[in-house]
Amino acid sequence: MVDVPAVLVSIPFLADTKPHHRRRIIKQAINQLPEETRRRVYSLSRGSSKYEVDAIMGSNSNTITVGEDEVHVGLFTEAARINHACRPNAYYRFSERRLTMEVVAFRAIQPGEEIFMSYVPLETPVEERRKYLQDHWGFNCACSLCRASKLDADNSEAWREKVKSLKSTILDARSQEYYQHAIVMTEEWLQVSEWDMTPPFMPDYHDTLADLYFLKGDMVNATRYARMAVDGWARLGSVDEEQLERSAAFLHRVDELNEKGR
Ligand SMILES: C[S@@+](CC[C@H](N)C(=O)[O-])C[C@H]1O[C@@H](n2cnc3c(N)ncnc32)[C@H](O)[C@@H]1O
């Protein structure tokens, strides 16, 4: 699913403008939207707050970066309908180039099954997750994992810790030029991910392996994984071609070096 922002507000504007002025401007911007979009924005209101516009923006928008570190708050009315779960079946990513929010399924989602995303990075530990959801979103998480047995919750927690430590070990090993070690860890990352039903995004995984094999000087595997990454990004039909272009440029470089080496 691809969604476009109905409202996009810069953080400095939110922080530096007097509240009544800020509300008036945002309300005016919303009221000037095409009728259908305006209707979708107001349908997000729960009607219980004195400051309706603040309440709509506060519990439905996402923080996104546009340009050089320009942080904004974007209201995406379709994506805003998706509830949070600590063990989600989809995730969202923002395309800066097209100003769109893309919701991507982690796995096949059955008809009638609810789509969930995590509002917090997946490897965040449970206490931090709950605090973030309460502080930033104002709710106590009632997802299936938060209502699951202690054993299920503990297993999920162990998985998060493992993924977090693996990711930092991969980066450390890469920076210290232990490329083979980083490769083994990356492969483990894929296996470990399956424990909790949220595999890493495969083209990302293939990009990582292509980079590591390249650094190690293994051009056969670097080429193989670079090609898989390019195919993955293309098949995914990503709204953000930057990723595809980056992987294609990498593959091109590897192909050129292969040609020279012949
Ligand atoms: C972006 S909206 C999600 C869609 C919203 N439920 C709707 O019907 O339009 C975020 C709000 O949904 C509710 N919500 C989302 N995920 C939740 C969860 N896991 N547990 C409890 N409330 C949740 C909270 O009230 C939160 O402020």
TrEMBL record:
CDD domains: SET_SMYD. Residues 4-120 form the SET domain. This is SET domain-containing protein. InterPro entries: SET_dom, SET_dom_sf, SET_domain_protein, TPR-like_helical_dom_sf.
